[in-house]
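pinned: reference chain
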Amino acid sequence: MAFEDREFAKLSIPLPDDKQEELENSILEEGCKEPILVWEGKIIDGYKRYRICRQFGIKYQEEEVKFRTRRRAIEWICEKRCNEAVEITVAVKYIVGRWCVAVTGNEVIKMLATRYGVLPETIRVYVRMAKLLDRMDLLDPVFVDMVLQEKVRVGRTMRVRMAEMDDAQLQRTMNRLSKGMDKPRDPNQMRYKRKMTDQERAKRIEQEETIQLKMGVKDIPEFDPDAELKGMLFTIPSWMNALKQAVDRSDLTLVSEQVKRHVITTLLDFNEMNLEIMEAMKDEQPIGPIDSGTEEMCSEYNSRIDPDQKSGQ
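pinned: its structure tokens
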């Protein structure tokens, strides 16, 4: 008789509630048609069907699959899950990261980056996330399940911070996140300005409606799709100058290790955000051909974050 294996079970992509209910109804009405795949007595594929069958006492078939090593079994599961996935969820990102951990080397990273149309550095972000979740799983597997099911969100900034924590700090942070303690403070405990009376509120609404009525079509500003990104062209250079000045004016040999770690963490976070912005602009195909200058800048950026790509050309 097969039994569950935690490492293999985490590689099962959770279904939305409605799809899970459909699967359950299907098995209850028609039975379990597909066999549960097993390796050395451990389930490697069919966890959702297995749990439904166990819950309702439904018979199922087992089929033995042979692999030389556990790592090869993990590689097979990850590849199968990625082929089945229809969207990139947190669970899929974790599986992509675990695939890269099981198969070391840059080739699998480049292959997955090409498959999903992302930069290699994005895949490396998934690898770091997978390693962190595996470490968290040793402390609190229920919390990790909630993350994989997207019932608890752990953003990239929080992941970078959690990766630097010891086990005690990590456990406290998971407890805090799972209990929703990151929500804003109780409004009753916060300071507010004097509340408006009903008359004041009615007068404010009347004034706003009057302003809206007075605004004609000619007064509405023309939409500028470039406005937000053009604003970045002014702010980003100021950030770069501020960073350069801070480094030039500081004696890095005297700066404390704590401050250095915090700065490095923030810069890594900023780098990941840059990658996401680049990916977003890459995914949105422009109208008409890309000018040579833009294409040259993108190639230069890719060669910076992935030196192997430049050397392999």
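why pinned: The longest strand covers residues 36-39. The beta strands are 36-39, 42-45, 62-64.
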